[in-house]
Specification:
The chain is mainly alpha-helical. 43% of the residues lie in helices and 3% in strands. The chain contains five helices and two strands, in the order E-E-H-H-H-H-H. Helix 3 packs antiparallel against helix 4 and helix 3 packs parallel to helix 5.
C-alpha cells in the first residue's frame, strides 16, 4: 500500500493485500477504510459457494410460513382498502370460517347472514362491525361449550 497525496491509502496491486488472509471472503476495495462506518460501507463478505445471494440463510427461501395464495388473491380484490382494514376483515373471515367448521354457524348460509348484518345500506361492508359480530359469536360459542348460557340469535 502507498499513501496517496489526496488522503486515504490505496491498494496498488493484489500483492499489497498480504494483510488479508487468502480465504477471508472479502471483496477488494479501492480505498482502505478509516473508521468503522466506512468499513461497513466498503467491505462486504462474498457469499459462500452454493449460497443463494438473495437469502442470508442460503436455502433459497424466506424464513417463516409460506404466503397464503388465497389471502393474496383477496387482498387484490379489496385493493382499495387500507392494510389495517384488510387485516381486520381477514381476521373476521378466518374466525367465521372456523366457526363454520365447529358448527357454531350454519355453513355458507350463516356466513352470508353475518356478512349481511355488517353490510351498510349502500352495499359496502362495515369491516369493524363484521369483526365485532364474529368475535361475539365466537365468545357465545365458547360459553356454550363450557356449559353456561343459552344459544339465542338476534
Amino acid at each position: 500500500m502507498s499513501q496517496n497525496a489526496s488522503g486515504p491509502q490505496v491498494w496498488q496491486s493484489p500483492g499489497d493485500r498480504k494483510d488479508l488472509a487468502a480465504g477471508d471472503g472479502l471483496k477488494s476495495t479501492v480505498a482502505q477504510p478509516q473508521g468503522r462506518r466506512e468499513m461497513r460501507a466498503t467491505y462486504r463478505p462474498e457469499p459462500k459457494a452454493g449460497m443463494n445471494e438473495l437469502m442470508p440463510n442460503g436455502t433459497g427461501s424466506r424464513p417463516g410460513p409460506k404466503p397464503d395464495q388465497f389471502r393474496s388473491f383477496m387482498r387484490q380484490q379489496f385493493a382499495d382498502w387500507s392494510d389495517r382494514t384488510f387485516a381486520r376483515w381477514w381476521k373476521a373471515h378466518k374466525r367465521l370460517k372456523l366457526l363454520m367448521e365447529v358448527g357454531a354457524i350454519d355453513g355458507e348460509v350463516g356466513y352470508k347472514a353475518v356478512t349481511a348484518r355488517a353490510t351498510r345500506a349502500n352495499g359496502s361492508v362495515n369491516v369493524n362491525k363484521l369483526d365485532r359480530i364474529s368475535e361475539e359469536i365466537a365468545a357465545l360459542w365458547v360459553v356454550r361449550q363450557e356449559g353456561g348460557g343459552t344459544w339465542e340469535s338476534d
